[in-house]
Amino acid sequence: MIVQSIKLACSNCNLRELCMPLALNEEELQKLDDLVTIRRKIPRGETLYRNGERFSALYAIRTGFFKTTVAAADGRDQVTGFQMAGEVIGLDGIVSDQHTCDAVALEDAEVCSMNFDLLEDLSREITALQRHVHKVMSREIVRENGVMLFLGSMHADERLAGFLLNLVQRLHVRGFSQSELILRMTREEIGSYLGLKLETISRTFSKFVEQDIIEVKQRHVRILNADALRLIVNNQGCHTT
Amino acid sequence: MIVQSIKLACSNCNLRELCMPLALNEEELQKLDDLVTIRRKIPRGETLYRNGERFSALYAIRTGFFKTTVAAADGRDQVTGFQMAGEVIGLDGIVSDQHTCDAVALEDAEVCSMNFDLLEDLSREITALQRHVHKVMSREIVRENGVMLFLGSMHADERLAGFLLNLVQRLHVRGFSQSELILRMTREEIGSYLGLKLETISRTFSKFVEQDIIEVKQRHVRILNADALRLIVNNQGCHTT
DNA sequence: CGACACCTTGAAGAGGTTCAAGAAATGTGG
DNA sequence: CCACATTTCTTGAACCTCTTCAAGGTGTCG
């Protein structure tokens, strides 16, 4: 757990548009910079926080890729999300002052730590920041609603197609390709997130490859036919069998 | 859509402990009362809000019972939650100023409408209220994490057992029995929530009845052996087959 | 009382899982 | 830099849970 006291500056951060999309004046930006003072590096495989740990801060991801998981009483666990640069994690800890899931770096990562008490103080002063915090939390609720729809009423190929489209869309917003991506997680982690076994993920990938919808070389995926994926998600992909 | 301008008073509300568990002074309570001025009655079967509708307020449920659903592009829909008195709904609308799910009353209901802009204004003034809003949203995120765990990695009997325990626990907090409950929703709605078909719900109920874990008379359920349900959820109920 | 929505149960079927084996990639230490 | 161990991925075959389809039963409300 490496904590560095490097002075950061939201005002200069190229992720601000994603992370803090606000129209702030000079003074407000300065206060924001004062809030986000600590940067933490999380090597691949290490946790940013764990279930049961005391909650004190939200984290804005600067670089890297995370998964969050919740554990059942008997040890089974479920991936609840994958998070990338510009996204905020740690919201689960607010309600009970304890984190209720684990956040694990899937590649070397760097996060900006935002002390939550200070964030609350500041968001009482800066209306736009208050609104932003509310939107970040609401967005997470809506995202989870979408996952529930996937898990509760979609087939394996629909889930995986939607997953790929979602990933590539988020990467595209960050300036990456619309059609190529590198998976930072294993088949097993994808499976856990989608409520499927790793073998099913592998088979479904193979099926998509056979249909010339994607190319797969290990973690490297190229989308050849995004429309086909969209049709599959919308359950109109039956005739393509 | 019946809107009444009845003057309400949080200060007198017997649900305040659930809905707004705050230590507020006289003046703050008065401001809260000013915020919550509109009460809406929603007859059974009607919607409080719909996907696509403009978002303007959160709703605190005074009486009655709701379900929320999200719809897929092809029409399939998924129940994302059941909400009862003292719970707050509408959080999904904050992020995009539009609701992204439907909220349907499963029995005649009454809600207190809280204009969200005013709520934000007030929560900048009252620290305890700000904190409370954050906790309500975080609680919803954590709840949905739990549902994802259910949907993603549990069997039919585990899901239903967990569902019953959760319902009865929430009812108990509200002063109802720990062992008896009346289901306000159909088997199909339970099934949708749990990612199962209504026949599976029915069969699993029957299985629990045969094992003397519960009694079922239509919507009326009596829990005879809560420990057995807990064992099932924790995946230690195998030997009871 | 009749119409309708809801629930139960059986039998057949499908989608995904489990088990197993081997291949490919990745990392480690000499 | 190569050999070896380990992790990850793919694919096949058998199996199982849940779904689908179907029919009949129960409760409710005008």
Describe what this molecule looks like in 3D.
- The structure is a homodimer of 241-residue chains.
- Chain A is an alpha+beta fold and 241 residues long.
- The first copy, chain A, has two domains: 4-143, Jelly Rolls (Sandwich), CATH 2.60.120; 154-233, Arc Repressor Mutant, subunit A.
- Chain A has eight helices and ten strands.
- Chain A has helices spanning 16-19, 26-35, 116-125, 127-153, 156-173, 187-194, 198-210, 226-233; strands spanning 2-4, 38-42, 47-49, 57-71, 77-84, 88-89, 102-115, 180-182, 214-217, 220-223.
- In chain A, strands 1, 2, 3, 4, 5, 6 and 7 form a seven-stranded antiparallel β-sheet that branches. A three-stranded antiparallel β-sheet of chain A has the order 8-10-9.
- In chain A, strand 4 (57-71) and strand 5 (77-84) form a beta hairpin.
- In chain A, helix 5 packs across helix 8 and helix 6 (187-194) packs across helix 7.
- Chain A is globular, with a radius of gyration of 19 Å.
- The model of chain A is unreliable at 1-5 (pLDDT under 50).
- The structure holds a DNA duplex (30 and 30 nucleotides).
Q: Architecture of the largest domain in chain A, CATH level 2?
A: Sandwich
**Number of structural domains of chain A:** 2
Helical region count of chain A?
A: 8
Q: In percent, how much strand structure appears in the residues of chain A? A: 25-35%
| Structural Rg of chain A | 19 Å
* The CATH superfamily title of the largest domain in chain A: Jelly Rolls
- What is the H-and-E element order of chain A? EHHEEEEEEHHHEHHEEH
Please bin the fraction of helical residues of chain A.
40-55%
How many strand units of chain A?
A: 10
The major sheet of chain A is characterized as:
7 strands, antiparallel
Q: From the structure provided, what is the oligomeric state, counting identical versus distinct chains?
A: homodimer
Mean of all residue-level pLDDT scores of chain A:
92
Low-pLDDT sequence parts of chain A: 1-5
Name of the top-level CATH class of the largest domain in chain A: Mainly Beta
Largest contact between chains? A-B, 51 and 51 residues
Cα-to-Cα separation, first versus last residue of chain A: 49 Å
Large-scale geometry of chain A: globular
CATH topology (level 3) name of the largest domain in chain A: Jelly Rolls
* Helix-strand category of chain A: alpha+beta
